[in-house]
Amino acid sequence: MSKRYPCGGAGRRDFLAAMGMAAAPAALGALAATHASAQEPKAAASAGTPAHVPVLGDGSLGIPGPYPGRVVEVRNPRMIRAGVKDREAIKRSVARGMKELAGADDAASAWRRFFEPGDVVGIKMNPVGNPLANTSSELMLEVVDGLKSAGVKARDIVVFERYQEDFLAAKMDRAVPDGIEWLTLGVGYNAHQIDIRGKDDRPLDDLGRVTGYDPDEFVHLEAVGNGEDPKDDRTRRSHLGLLVTRRVNKIVCLPVLKDHGSAGITGALKNMSHGLVNNVCRSHSTPDSNICNIFIPQVVSHPIIRRKCVLHIMDGIVGVYQGGPGAGKVDWTWENNALLFATDPVAMDRILWDRIDAKRKEKGLPPVAASGRAAADPLGTEGFDARQPQHVRLAGFLGLGLFELDSPRGRRFSIQHTAIDVS
């Protein structure tokens, strides 16, 4: 288990059997969250579905978006071969995925479904799996071009990540085109995560690219990290980044297809819950105090995150089935050659969950929901008593998207997964 990212039970089948729809609000309410937001006066405790939640299928861009349950997977064996990525193949795959997601005649029309002139758009990267499995620079460049095709000006596009140290280590700054700004929320990872401005609450960094966190926008959750002072109210809060709350009005999220030692998987949902706020270590500060299943849905339910994260494109060009999120071993990655497109992060992560479990079965490993120090640990690498991919289903209970592949309530409540082969 990585000391820097301290992330690694009850099996998935046992959990789902024990937890019906009626039990979900009680489970989520065990650690009630309050969304404090100066911009959203109706924000309130989210043990049930808040008043600001978009109705499924109402066409709103807010999560779960205009296409609840729709996941488009584009598979193209040319995107990476023997570790070398092909920009043209990724370009064709992005264009096809956007067309299919939006039901548009061409890619530019699809991008215009989500973005328009005057928008200020953030592109959320994920560098944690560097160098083996992080958001591809080639994918980021295609998103930039797509935004421009929708009329978004270069000066209104910001490429960003939470930690500047990770962003620079992955050399993501070098790939950002001229005229496009890149920023980060904090300076770098640290175990004491209640700072607002940067590492250890220091001022902006020397580069002037750290934005810090918003004192008025946060998720209050009665969970305090190991070793933190419970008398300090900041220990119970996760503040949203100022870039998220005050700079951009829309965000394109680019998660990576990976497993995760504590959350089970890390996809669209965790890319937001742990990438847009501070004080996240409290969700898994010790091996036996893992609460990712509750923390992730509650943070993503914050009204600003729901409203602004309008599109998710998962980089599944390289996948990680064990050892995530750091992707420390080549043996635990594979060239998956796929991109996933969705406005619904729950549906996207359900497909991710199945992909990871299928690869783990192929490699002779237990499902992520049956893995942990107190469950199955055949490699002796698990860092937490039990992994918690159930956060995906619980996010569905909060109205963040659809979870069922075949819902008894009918097609409108089922995931519609379309796989397309492009070469």
Automatic annotation (TrEMBL):
Ranges where the DUF362 domain occurs: 248-353
Origin superkingdom: Bacteria
Signal sequence segment: 1-32
TM ranges: none
Keywords: Signal
Pfam families referenced in this protein's UniProt entry, alphabetically: DUF362
Protein name: DUF362 domain-containing protein
Organism: Aquisphaera giovannonii
